[in-house]
Prior knowledge:
Blueprint: H1 4-22, H2 26-50, H3 53-72, H4 77-104, H5 107-125, H6 129-133
Helix pairs in contact: 2-3, 2-5, 3-4, 4-5
Amino acid sequence: MFSPAKSFASAYRTVDAETSVAHASPHQLVTLLFDAALAAIATARGALQRGDVVVKGKQITKAVRIIEEGLRGGLNQAAGGALASDLSALYAYLVKQLTLANVRNDDKPLAESHALLSTVREGWIAIPAQQRAA
């Protein structure tokens, strides 16, 4: 049955997300990637606790894709030097941990991944505005 309120809410979220991306700076886009990956991990943890393996798997897959394709794929190895290399290694580790969490139905690697990614996000948003523009 058609549910107008649900349909409008869904449409609003889609438009809001598209508008956020369209008007975001490169720095803000990376922040959105961090936020989306962290939200997916948090949702996966909740699904794991409820025993909902389908949602857990989908959310872990979503987080892995964001980390691998968005965060890791967006690194500029040539310009980023050792920092880009270290972040690439960290992202690879996170993908491994998330995969293990999915296969083993284990919250510990999910919790660790969330904590590590949160720390990187905090560092990212702490970058001063003048350096963001450079």
